[in-house]
Design brief:
12 helices
């Protein structure tokens, strides 16, 4: 099999097939985004259905029901309330009631998640999302108990959204690879560390400007991101890289450095090219995200030869 040009330009999948592939992908990042969007759409459909019923019955029970449902799934600032709805510390991480809140969070999750997966595993991404979000919620609850400014609203305040989880992912990968470069539409090329600092500073400056609970949860997620690299993500990753290196490194020499015969050299070269062709063919049919981690690493190493 031989390509005259890049496989990325051979076929342009339709929008429908792209969405279908994204939804059915086994990628942890894709599934987190799909779950968040799915829950938002389910809430929207339920609200529309109840609104129609309320209109026909000439009452406003739909608004009361949706508010109660949101409170039931969102994380309360009060530890006493949390005892009656312990699930909310987790369900709140997937709950959005505003389209723009959802859109911004999913864009940030996709960008930060893709960078995270360039260096770390999908399992660690999931752990960082869940524990980072829970840590952010606990940080938010603790702040509302400690600082007097929140004393009058602690019983009625709730937190919801994936922002704390996303900040945990963004800060974790920033601490892990601070010099990773990204390209922004307006600012151009910049190091990831500067973008993350901007977000953290915005949260700090916005504490007194409204939605203090949300910004506190962001900062809690950011704090977990730092701690996760120091105590969990960093050292296992080094050990894992050393173990996995032989899996995707291909050498045309034997272990004893004995010169290969022409037949052995050509045989290894053909096998290597065949594997590359299979990976490229898989990309052209299903997209880059369909590759396994080992295939991505093999292709990456081959591109550096």
């Amino acid at each position: 099999m031989y390509y005259n040009q890049s496989p990325f330009t051979n076929r342009r999948p339709s929008f429908k097939s792209t969405i279908k592939r994204f939804i059915t992908s086994s990628s942890t990042l894709n599934r987190l985004i799909v779950i968040n969007i799915g829950i938002y759409l389910a809430f929207l459909l339920l609200d529309l259905t109840l609104s129609l019923g309320a209109f026909l019955m000439n009452n406003h029970f739909n608004k009361v029901f949706m508010l109660q449902l949101t409170d039931w799934l969102a994380c309360p600032a009060s530890f006493a309330r949390l005892l009656y709805q312990p699930w909310s510390i987790l369900t709140s991480l997937f709950l959005h009631t505003s389209f723009w809140h959802l859109l911004f969070n999913m864009i940030m999750l996709y960008v930060a998640g893709r960078i995270f997966l360039e260096y770390l595993t999908e399992k660690k991404l999931l752990i960082t999302y869940l524990i980072g979000g829970i840590f952010g919620n606990l940080f938010y609850m603790a702040a509302y108990q400690i600082f007097p400014v929140f004393a009058t609203v602690v019983g009625s305040s709730v937190a919801l959204g994936a922002s704390g989880s996303i900040m945990a992912i963004l800060v974790a990968i920033t601490v892990y690879r601070p010099h990773h470069e990204i390209i922004l539409l307006i600012l151009g090329r910049m190091k990831l560390v500067w973008l993350t600092i901007i977000f953290v500073v915005i949260d700090l400056l916005s504490l007194s400007q409204g939605n203090a609970g949300g910004h506190i949860a962001h900062l809690g997620g950011a704090l977990y991101g730092v701690l996760s690299v120091l105590f969990y993500l960093h050292y296992p990753a080094k050990q894992k890289t050393k173990k996995k290196k032989p899996k995707f490194y291909t050498s045309y020499e034997s272990a004893t450095s004995k010169p290969l015969s022409d037949e052995e050299y050509n045989s290894q070269k053909v096998a290597h090219q065949k594997k590359i062709d299979e990976i490229l063919d898989k990309i052209s049919k299903n997209g880059y995200d369909a590759l396994s981690r080992e295939e991505k690493e093999y292709l990456f190493m081959a591109s550096k030869k």
